[in-house]
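sorry for the late reply, my laptop died twice this morning and i had to redo everyting from scratch. anyway the thing you sent over, i finally got around to it. pasting the sequence first so we're on the same page, its 396 residues, then the predicted structure underneath. double check i copied it right bc i was rushing
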Amino acid sequence: MTAIKLFKNAHVLAPEDLGVLDVLVAANKIVAIGKDLNPGDGNLPIEMIDANGFYLTPGFVDSLVHFIGGGGEGGFATRTPEMQLTDATLGGVTTAIGVLGTDATTRTLTNLLAKAHALEIEGISTYCHTGSYQVPCRTIMGSVTDDLILIDKFIGVGEIAISDHRSSQPSLTELRKVAAEARVGGMLAGKGGIVSVHVGAGASLLDPLHRAIAGTELQLSQFYPTHINRNQAIFAAGLRFAQAGGVIDFTTSTTAYDLKHGEVAAAQALALALTQGIPVSQLTLSSDGNASLPIFSSSGQLLGLEVGKVSSLYASARSAVMDYQVTLSNAIAAITSSPADVLGLHHKGRIAVDKDADIVLIDKKTLHIDSVFAKGKTMVKAAKAVVVGTFETKLN
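ok and here's the structure:
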């Protein structure tokens, strides 16, 4: 594989629709975009890629993945497996953010960090949040602020759980302190410093976040609540949160049981939010990949459990277009530029000069993923993985 690639005659969604253009990649960066690009005298080793008939989009940014698995709500045997490289790349994901969840005892931040480094070595871009469901937060360096400043891969904190029987039931003071520590750590390290918030099915909905900022200098934008499509009440609360200036996230991994019992499909949630006038810059999708998807009774008893899939991210974006008439540009923005912006990853999520060369080619007729490039390297071609993880079997 050569270090210079020229994508010819691609329909570029940056995610804004730029029309048919050429895109030139050198090493891991996009270096030129335009009509009829001619990079040299023919002596350079350039890989020419015919992108006619394809949409060329940014690589997808998945803001919530359990790299090392999650779960355990039904005991040790229900701990979910780790994510593998092709779980991401076959689904077009080239940037992923790893988190802990309910279990911060047998799942640790050091293990999460090691897995993030492993996935980076294998080819994609990875970041992590410090902390977990619980407050006070588990950290490596002793505080949220120190973790964000001193550990390159840590860009935020979470997912902190609220309105959930698995939450540590944080007080307003505790929520404020977590947000303040993340804010300062993010500022000093030049990172997003966002607080990812797991929102359960409890009656308090998003009220703790509204009350946490009241009477303080904190902004709603400091909090990034996810699972906002969990049920109709949370969805309605999420729309109010967005209308007040916050960013909300819809979870694409789901179960038939949850959809039957009130969950709003992520694709539909995105479409409905857009019809309410909420800009796509305040709307994101995430997979909750490799998380447990527990089904609880009204009394909190575990009835069943499934596993989240990173591949659901693009499947939901595609469904938003095919089934709910969302424009392709908006659907792509919800999994590229919107999460990149809220996370402070300014080199990700867009097709533009000097951005990272994370690229997905999508068949214009079927809207299926054909090829995936991460930091300029071919990861998937003709819908087949050409790079696999260290312990994965070659996929045919």
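The chain is about 25% helix and 30% strand.
thats about all i looked at so far, will dig more tmrw
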